From TrEMBL, chain A:
<dbReference type="InterPro" id="IPR027304">
    <property type="entry name" value="Trigger_fact/SurA_dom_sf"/>
</dbReference>
<dbReference type="InterPro" id="IPR055582">
    <property type="entry name" value="DUF7158"/>
</dbReference>
<dbReference type="Pfam" id="PF23716">
    <property type="entry name" value="DUF7158"/>
</dbReference>
<protein>
    <submittedName>
        <fullName>Malonyl CoA-ACP transacylase</fullName>
    </submittedName>
</protein>
Automatic annotation (TrEMBL), chain B:
<dbReference type="InterPro" id="IPR000602">
    <property type="entry name" value="Glyco_hydro_38_N"/>
</dbReference>
<dbReference type="InterPro" id="IPR011330">
    <property type="entry name" value="Glyco_hydro/deAcase_b/a-brl"/>
</dbReference>
<dbReference type="GO" id="GO:0009313">
    <property type="term" value="P:oligosaccharide catabolic process"/>
</dbReference>
<protein>
    <submittedName>
        <fullName>Alpha-mannosidase</fullName>
    </submittedName>
</protein>
<comment type="similarity">
    <text>Belongs to the glycosyl hydrolase 38 family.</text>
</comment>
<dbReference type="GO" id="GO:0046872">
    <property type="term" value="F:metal ion binding"/>
</dbReference>
<dbReference type="InterPro" id="IPR018905">
    <property type="entry name" value="A-galactase_NEW3"/>
</dbReference>
<dbReference type="GO" id="GO:0004559">
    <property type="term" value="F:alpha-mannosidase activity"/>
</dbReference>
<dbReference type="InterPro" id="IPR013780">
    <property type="entry name" value="Glyco_hydro_b"/>
</dbReference>
Length: 183, 1382
């Protein structure tokens, strides 16, 4: 039984169920929504998206010859929010995904004008600090945001190409019956 | 090979702006580049484009918009030539789509206040139905601000004070950027209200205070410029809402729910949450003038595709896909736009910034000149709408349509919270009046701090997931504690104020002994029942002249006697009664002190005679209005019957539970079985009958009392033993009045409403048309025609769309003032009256223009008799006002599947004449008496009987009147649909039987009354009687004494009595709301409304003269002069107007006696109050706040001032764990208005610190209170560190007891905080106080004692009690244990 296809690679229902079981055995497992409920099915759909994203990361890393490595990637709450929950989940615990993230987004640059514009637009953050002192931090912040956006857009677009079978639709897809915006 | 695969017309234009060229989309297939040419009625070309792909060819044409042109597309290139015909629909350039970034926020719903504000991630049980993009308020504000800091094109809105206040105080370092973005027009602070309240479930005063606290914070404290009432998600709206908001200085409103069912005009059965449906079935444009019964209104944008319309593009994978999504939405929404401006809200519940928004803003103009897609603010949209209207001279359509019902379950789910809200609101209004009068009388200080907090808690609870009963179980308990707190604060002020006044009365006449001073909170004289506890033994009562007054003892022990009597009390004043003391008993009448059994089933007073049938469950089989002789009960039917309806667990299609009524169609009534007992009693005060019976597991006790001199049928229904799931209980009074229509009171007005369908199967017919009433509903007439028919809800049909304002507005306003809401449509457009589409139904059409003017009139006048009569009238120079009865009766047309759109479905009033404006003006003038003179060519049928039956309620708002004339009052329901039973902070608590609290498995009492009379509800005086029922007389008992006030007096008088209702009387100004200190004494605010749809002049006078007076807005800002003469205010009100006056006396003495609490009982006050799920903030509203954040060994402390008038000063102290050192440890901080400061405290542990966690408190002494924030070093304690242990309690009436709560601190640190005693409505006068400070030393046990005092007259029943402890940001709930009164 297949839940989704990433290119030619199937993600089986068994793989999905195994991952769900692993989550259930984890630290917050007892708090996950029960099987057979709409929320339980939504959890399965979310896990499917994680597995798809992991497969895409693995494929791309293999294609580029990337191996795990580098310091762990720290994600602030705002960063997680910018990435979306699936990409945030894939990136936070996965050294291969982090390496791919670095490689994919390595070319991003922040023009000096953007840094100076940010500096002048956000003076509340730089009282008593010169531009020269502030610039490295601003550059790092803006670069981080830009890299996260690039990675999330890249990964989202790839994930969207996956074929999803009934019951394993994207959890945010409003067309399936478990999508709950209940008022 | 070259083919042209598709030719598609678009509404896109290439530039330049002033010479735009419309774009034709052409899809081709070819291997090599091609040239494209468009010829025919439009021309254009592209050269050298790829052979395969979609091409956008700009074309020019001279044809006007809407023309359909034939074109030929020719493609040529190396692969050959192809031609294809196509058509181009000429579009209009000049459109702008305003993409408004927002997030919708519910401060409470299934998750808690703490969860939604900041703690969602830390609450494992709050992850279940969280969607992947949903975040807390703090995370969202941060994310939106960060994007705005980076991206100069980003604009967004913030709205709810529920998150603004905490964020503003806790992160003052962002005050500057917020102010800067506001100033730059990139951030709009929306709403001018505290939250998104369900104004249809509270009184108008609560709505007004919502604006006071909203504008006060958003404008004065935060520095925003709120202009738009931003009521995205509210489940319907009070009809007076737009007028009130206009009076609060707002200029527009925007929201998503009202005229159609929950998801708007795009909802279809079987579909769900469709954001992109077609709204073109609407009868009016999405921008309209929304008009109140007061006649005032607001420019309004209705979000026809809902408040999350534009959010779905977030899931697009590419920018072009996102742009195409917006373009698709534009094409649908422009169909209903009033101008060439379309508002698209981009955001949904708790959503972060949309990922494509500013990219669209930048990219789209590089592709197209029109339409413009811009990231913008609502104010940009409304300015563009207004500018276009000014430029074209077009006017918006006037709509006074009732924006209800939405989500019928909201009127009854968690019914006890609605009872609590109403009681607290009335207690507070009365408290405010008497506190102001106590200040007028001298020596009292106005208890602004207590009243302020009470109002804020009510405003907080008015949120559309709070008062609506749609919340989870834990949130219900949190909210219930807030309502109780508001009630207790108000009660304390109320008692304090009337005691203050009573103490100043010279009541020595009659000699030594006790006096009963009875207070009337209403501004008309009253004769009504009063209950009071007096010293025992009770020996009799006289009035101040020594005339005996009959009184009945309802309970007595050695100490106290609970007596009841009928008092006559002047307008907003008091009367002294004398308690007879030994040795001077009042001359005995016939056993004056008890109810005595009589062997009858009929009771009577001078107003009504009522008979119950023991064989039919004790239901009322006859109720005669003695004044008119009318039998009010429909022959053969039974009144006061309890009916249990089976419900679905959730709606089979919509999957909605607590907010949707879900009857299956199966029901059982109490009249189908004999009563268990029927007991009639008589006393000198009146007669009463008590019936008991059983209906399934439910045991019911119903008491009906007819008091001599009181023109009401007072009823109470007690229910015990209810253990149902998915059941709805209604109470039914079949009181058919032929031709009468349902009417209901709303906030400060009365409106007509459609017939309802309480008995349907909601799977087939989801729209039962239950509605919320304020104090009463009934069968009567809003307006009538002289031919005899009554009507209450209108569709005004003008000839053409451009006539809606010109011909419809004055009529819509005058109808609204008379309580007839109207939808203004035009003859060529859609009709109003399809129940599967419209949220409610009209009962009359008013057609402006004759058959030559108005195509719908031509259809209506198809019958030549009507046409001939109209021609005759006009030829004779008579008013062309013709009544055409409906082809079918209401029972036939007002069905659950009603479609009333055909010409003959409703009666029609045709207004015709050579000058249509003059003809309409004549009818407008004729509405002054609510009766329109008409001609009628045919037999108009039986005239509507001109009489009224009304049911008055105390906090039971849900009602349904079916076409058979059965008045249904929704009592309660037990809904298991999600989020019933949801609990966030473990361990989960339940009612003692293990059920969710939403199931309401405890004893309930429902109080209501019937009123009747000849004529319509105005003639029958129902409004005043409903106020009487809602505001029982209150009495104070004390020893006789001297004083400056006379024994009996009116402290405030409005004349003529009852023609203008004094809705509020208070000290002028709401300083805390605006960040200011105490108001100047000596000025008072009076708010009055006209209740009957009539022009009225009135005068308002007091014992203390009003030297000057001013007209004011609802924020109490003076706007113009008002007339005073001889110390009295003289003013006039337009029909249904709500007017505020500020009255100045020449006393400016600040009294000293405190009438209410001005500090929290539990000190220090925890500054992050939202973590305690505690509502809208502590007493004083933290005008100076302290917040701490831990970073390694450093505590970052911020202090922020919300004062707007003066410098704030506070004393700061850091309290480190024992043995630790903190530096600096204390200092004095001064802050300029709105300013903040921050500094770091370094913590140094002792040499060998004990393992943590350890609290570090940062305390700020300011304004007579100590505020503190607490952070932990060495780990985080769980809520379980404090264990709360409680025992069941069982007591008898009259018994006093102490209920002991065990507190066990298992932590190594001392715990301090507060505890709230939580119990359902109906028990609050038994156990108290509601709030207790707690302090439990490390590792030790303590006890909390709650006093229980059961009144002698308490009824037996089973309720529950629990204790919620809050400390250092943690919440610990005890289990709920039974509280039984035997």
């Amino acid at each position: 039984m297949i839940a989704a296809l990433v290119g030619e690679t199937p993600i089986t229902v068994e793989t999905v169920e195994r991952r769900v079981r692993r989550l259930r055995q984890g630290p917050r497992g007892e708090l996950l929504p029960a099987d057979g409920t709409a929320e339980g099915r939504q959890l399965r759909r979310w896990v499917t998206q994680i597995l798809i994203a992991e497969q895409i990361v693995a494929d791309e890393a293999a294609r580029r010859g990337i191996v795990p490595g580098g310091p762990p990637l720290e994600l602030t709450p705002t960063a997680r929010l910018e990435l979306g929950s699936v990409m945030a989940a894939v990136l936070s615990g996965n050294p291969l995904a982090q390496a791919l993230y670095r490689a994919l987004t390595a070319h991003q640059l922040i023009p000096e004008t953007e840094i100076s514009q940010y500096f002048s637009n956000n003076q509340d953050r730089y009282r008593g600090i010169t531009y020269e002192q502030a610039a490295p931090g601003i550059r790092a912040d803006l670069l981080g945001a830009r890299r996260r956006r690039q990675f999330a857009l890249w990964a989202d677009a790839r994930c969207a190409r996956a074929t999803l079978l009934p019951g394993f639709e994207h959890p945010g897809d409003i067309r399936h019956p478990d999508h709950t915006h209940r008022h | 090979m070259l083919t042209i695969d598709a030719v598609e017309s678009t509404e896109l234009f290439a530039g330049p702006d002033d010479a735009p060229r419309q774009i034709l989309r052409v899809r081709t297939s070819a291997d090599s580049p091609i040239d494209l040419r468009v010829s025919g009625d439009a021309e254009g070309h592209l050269t050298g484009v790829p052979g395969t792909g979609l091409h956008e060819i700009p074309v020019t044409t001279g044809a006007p918009p809407g023309s359909v042109l034939s074109v030929v597309v020719t493609a040529s290139g190396p692969a050959g030539t192809a031609t294809a015909p196509g058509s181009l629909t000429v579009a209009e350039p000049g459109w702008t789509v305003f993409l408004v970034s927002h997030f919708h926020y519910d401060p409470v719903w299934w998750n808690t206040q703490a969860g939604y504000a900041s703690e969602w991630d830390a609450l494992p049980d709050a992850q279940d139905v969280r969607m992947s993009f949903q975040f807390t308020a703090f995370q969202l504000i941060d994310a939106h601000l960060e994007l705005a800091r980076r991206d100069p094109d980003y604009r967004f809105v913030l709205a709810e004070v529920d998150y603004l206040k905490p964020y503003w105080d806790a992160f003052p370092e962002n005050r500057e950027i917020i102010g800067k973005l506001v100033g730059a027009g990139r951030l709009e602070i929306m709403g001018g209200t505290y939250n998104e309240p369900n104004t249809n479930l509270t009184g108008a005063e609560t709505t007004i205070r919502n604006a006071v606290y909203g504008v006060g914070f958003q404008r004065d404290i935060l520095g925003g410029a709120p202009a738009t009432a931003w009521q995205l998600d509210s489940f319907g709206h009070d009809p007076q809402f737009p007028g009130l908001m206009a009076d609060a200085g707002l200029t527009s409103s925007a929201w998503a729910r009202g005229p159609f069912h929950q998801w708007g005009p795009t909802l279809e059965m079987g579909t769900y949450d469709t954001p992109h449906g077609d709204p073109s079935g609407m009868q009016f444009r999405s921008e309209f003038e929304w008009i109140s019964p007061s006649g005032r209104g607001l420019l309004t944008h209705y979000m026809a595709a809902h408040y999350s319309a534009g959010w779905s593009m977030d899931s697009a994978q590419t920018l072009p896909d996102a742009e195409e999504s917006v373009y698709g939405l534009f094409l649908r929404m422009k169909k209903v736009s009033a101008t060439k401006n379309v508002l698209v809200p981009v955001g949904t519940d708790y959503s972060p910034p949309n990922k494509w928004l500013t990219e669209i803003h930048r990219d789209w103009p590089t592709r197209y000149a029109w339409p413009k897609f811009v990231c913008a603010l609502p104010r940009d949209f409304f300015a563009a709408v207004s500018a276009e209207l000014a430029e074209t001279g077009a006017r918006l359509s006037p709509q006074s349509r009732d924006m209800n019902p939405i989500y019928t379950g909201k009127d009854v789910s968690y019914i006890d919270t609605k009872q609590a809200q109403r009681a607290a609101e009335n207690e507070l209004l009365d408290a405010e009046k008497f506190a102001a009068l106590a200040c007028l009388a001298g020596d009292a200080g106005y208890p602004e701090a207590a009243l302020d907090k009470a109002w804020r808690q009510l405003v907080y609870g008015a949120h559309h997931d709070a008062i609506t009963g749609t919340e989870s179980d834990q949130v219900y308990l949190d909210l219930l504690a807030g309502w109780r707190e508001a009630y207790d604060l108000a009660r304390q002020v109320h008692d304090g104020a009337i005691r203050h006044l009573a103490a100043r009365v010279d009541n020595r006449a009659g000699g030594e002994g006790h006096r009963v001073t009875v207070f009337n909170a209403l501004a008309w004289p009253r004769t009504d029942v009063v209950r009071v506890s007096v010293p025992a033994p009770f020996r009799g009562l006289t009035d101040e002249h020594g005339v005996p007054v009959p009184a009945v003892v309802e309970g007595e022990d050695g100490e106290r006697a609970e007596i009841v009597f009928v008092a006559e009390v002047p307008s907003l004043g008091y009367r002294t009664y004398v308690l007879a003391g030994f040795p001077h008993p009042v001359p005995a009448t016939v056993d004056p002190t008890r109810w005595r059994d009589v062997d009858r089933v009929t009771i009577a007073n001078g107003h009504h005679r009522l008979t119950v049938d023991p064989a039919r469950g004790g239901a009322v089989v006859s109720l005669v209005d003695m004044a008119t002789g009318d039998e009010l009960i429909t022959p053969g039917e039974a009144g006061n019957e309890i009916v249990v309806y089976e419900e679905y667990h959730e709606h089979p299609v919509f999957r909605e539970g607590p907010w949707h009524l879900l009857p299956t169609g199966a029901s059982a009534g109490s009249a189908s079985a004999p009563a268990l007992s029927v007991r009639a009693e008589r006393s000198p005060l009146g007669e009463r009958i008590t019936v008991t019976g059983a209906l399934g597991t439910i045991r019911y006790t119903q008491v009906i009392t007819l008091w001599h001199g009181v023109n009401r049928v007072d009823c109470v229904t007690h229910l015990d033993g209810f253990d149902g799931s998915d059941q709805l209980l209604r109470l039914r009074w079949p009181c058919a009045i032929p031709g009468a229509k349902p009417v209901s009171e709303v906030g400060h007005a009365v409106v007509g409403r459609p017939f309802a369908h309480p008995d349907v199967d909601a799977a087939r017919h989801p729209w039962t048309l239950d509605n919320p009433a304020y104090q009463w509903f009934g069968l009567s007439s809003m307006a009538r025609v002289s031919a005899g028919a009554a009507f209450g809800v209108a569709e005004i049909v003008v000839p053409r769309e451009e006539d809606t304002a010109e011909l419809g507005r004055d009529l819509a306003i005058r109808l609204a003032q008379s309580g007839v809401t109207a939808t203004t449509t035009h003859a060529e457009g859609n009709r109003y009256g399809l129940l599967s589409f419209d949220s409610n139904l009209p009962d009359v059409r008013i057609v402006i223009g004759g058959p030559q003017d108005n195509v719908f009139a031509a259809e209506v006048l198809a019958d030549s008799r009507h046409r001939a009569e109209l021609e005759r009238l006009l030829a004779a120079g008579e008013p062309g006002v013709l009544w055409i009865p409906a082809a079918r009766g209401p029972a036939e047309t007002f069905r659950p599947d009603a479609d009333l759109r055909a010409a003959g479905d409703l009666p029609v009033l045709v207004i015709a004449g050579p000058d249509l404006r003059a003809a309409v003006a004549a009818v407008v003038a004729d509405l002054a008496d609510s009766v329109i003179e008409v001609a009628c060519a045919v037999d108009p049928g039986e005239p509507a009987e001109n009489r009224t039956v009304a049911v008055l309620n105390r906090g039971i708002p849900g009602f349904a009147v079916d076409t058979e004339g059965r008045l249904h009052l929704s009592l309660m329901r037990s809904c298991t649909g999600w989020p019933s039973g949801v609990w966030i902070d473990p361990p989960r608590r339940t009612a003692p039987d293990g059920s969710g609290f939403q199931l309401q498995h405890w004893s309930h009492s429902f109080e209501y009354a019937l009123a009747s009379g000849a004529g319509d509800w105005r003639d029958a005086g129902v409004v005043a009687r409903a106020h009487d029922f809602s505001h029982p007389l209150r009495a104070v008992v004390e020893e006789a004494h001297d004083g400056p006030l006379p024994a009996t007096a009116s402290l405030l008088t409005v004349e003529p009595a009852g023609e203008a209702v004094l809705a509020a009387f208070k000290a002028a100004g709401n300083p805390t709301a605006h960040g200011r200190g105490q108001a100047e004494p000596g000025s008072f605010t009076a708010r009055l409304y006209e209740p009957h749809g009539r022009d009225v002049s009135f005068q308002l006078s007091s014992q203390v003269p009003f030297v000057t007076a001013a007209l004011a807005d609802v924020l109490e800002v003076e706007t113009g002069e008002a007339k005073t003469r001889d110390g009295a205010l003289h003013a006039a009100l337009a029909p249904s107007q709500i007017a505020t006056y500020v009255l100045h006396t020449d006393t400016d003495e600040e009294g000293s006696e405190s009438l209410g609490r001005d500090a929290e009982p539990a000190q220090p006050v925890f500054s992050r109050f939202w973590l305690h799920n505690r509502g809208s903030g502590p007493i004083g509203y933290q005008p100076m706040s302290v917040h701490a954040r831990l970073d390694g060994g450093t505590v970052h402390v911020t202090l922020a001032s919300d004062r707007t008038d003066i410098e704030a000063e506070g004393k700061l102290q850091v309290v480190p764990p024992p043995g630790w050192d903190a530096s600096p440890a204390d200092q004095v901080v001064r802050l300029a208005p709105g300013d903040w400061t921050g500094f770091d405290v370094t913590l140094t542990p002792p040499g060998e610190p004990e393992p943590g966690p350890w609290p570090v408190a940062v305390q700020l002494e300011h304004g007579g209170q100590v505020h503190e924030d607490v952070v932990f070093v060495g780990g985080q304690p769980g809520a379980g560190a404090l264990l709360v242990d409680v025992e069941p309690i069982e007591l008898a009436p009259g018994q006093r007891a102490r209920w002991t709560v065990g507190l066990r601190n298992t932590a190594r640190f001392d715990i301090r905080g507060e505890a709230q005693v939580i119990s359902p409505w109906g028990t609050w006068d038994l156990a108290g106080p509601g709030v207790h400070p707690i302090a439990v030393a490390a590792g030790s046990r303590d006890r909390l004692t709650v006093d229980i005092d059961v009144p002698l007259g308490a009824r037996p029943g089973t309720w529950w009690l629990l204790v919620k402890c809050m400390w250092f940001g943690r919440v610990s709930y005890s289990p709920a244990v039974p509280m039984v009164i035997r």
